[in-house]
Amino acid sequence: MYLGVQEAERRLFRMALIAGVVGFINIASLFLSWYVHTAENLQSEPIMGYMRVETLALSLAGGVVASASALSSWIAKRLKRIKRAESSLALVGGIISILSPIVMMTRIVPGLEEAGGGGYFDVGLFVSAISAAAVVLVGVFISLIPVSVEEVPSVAAPSTSRWTTPMMTLPPPLLTEAPPVERRPEVRTVVMESVDELVEGAMCTICYQPMELGSTVKCSACGALYHQGCVDVWVDLNGICPNCKNPVEATYPRED
Asked: What confidence tens digit (pLDDT) does each residue in 194-207 have?
């Protein structure tokens, strides 16, 4: 399973930050009692980690190297380099730090016992050993974080050679058939004619009132029936027949 670039960067930074914090704890353990030496007169003397040059140097060096892993995210630019730098610094820092309690147990404590008396290991030694082992584990976890690098295919730049033939744009294909022409209805001028016969019950198309024979006209094109007064007002306003929409030239007989 591969992570995205941003998610991998976040995980690497969190793990490196943990390594830095644990490295700082390892340095802080120098101020705790590592070993309590009991002399022959039964007087106890706590020995701090910073009291011996070997443990002081190893713990400081290991803690600083482990803490530097948190800074590699700003120093390295590529994701794989960040991962390599953080895991290497955490592993090296943890190994150096873990040498400090080992030196205390194998060299310093036997020398004190040879001088006379005895003693026991105190909490500072265990804090140093546990924190150093934790830094090593963090370095191992960082090395196991999967990362993916997306390769963007390179696009070739356009050639600027003078021998390059410019691309020709083909014209659009010609239409084999002309689009159909919309036929508009024929417009003709009509007149309003007088009516000789009138069907019983006929009604004006404009006012929908019954009509009488003397005051009724019809359209010469569509034959629609109107009151003379109604169609005069309509034609004066619109100039067309209300039914067939053709222009009206005149109405007969015209009422004065």
From this structure: 888 877 778 888 88
Among 63, 59, 82, 56, smallest CA distance to 22 is for 63
Residue located via tokens 């290497």 = 88
For the chain, give the mean pLDDT: 80
In terms of pLDDT, which residue wins out, 88 or 77? 88
Q: Which domains does the chain have, with CATH numbers?
A: 5-144 (1.20.140.150), 190-251 (3.30.40.10)
Long-range contact list for 238-243, CB < 8 A, 24+ apart?
A: 241/190, 242/205, 242/206, 243/205, 243/219
Direct distance between the N- and C-terminal alpha carbons of the chain, in angstroms, rounded to an integer: 99
On whether the CB atoms of residues 94 and 66 are closer than 8 A, the answer is: yes
Closest CA to 89 of 70, 116, 113: 70
- Between CA 217 and CA 190 the distance in angstroms is 12
Separation of alpha carbons 221 and 168, rounded Å? 59
Burial class (CB in 10 A: 0-12, 13-18, 19+), 12: buried
- Measure CA 42 to chain center: 70
The DSSP secondary structure of 91-118, one letter per residue, reads HHHHHHHHHHHHHIIIIIHHHHHHHS-E
Residue with the bigger pLDDT between 192 and 106: it is: 106
Which is more confidently placed, 61 or 253? 61
pLDDT tens by residue, 7-30: 777 888 888 888 889 989 999 999
Q: Residue 46: CB partners within 8 Å, gap ≥ 6?
A: 33, 35, 36, 37, 122
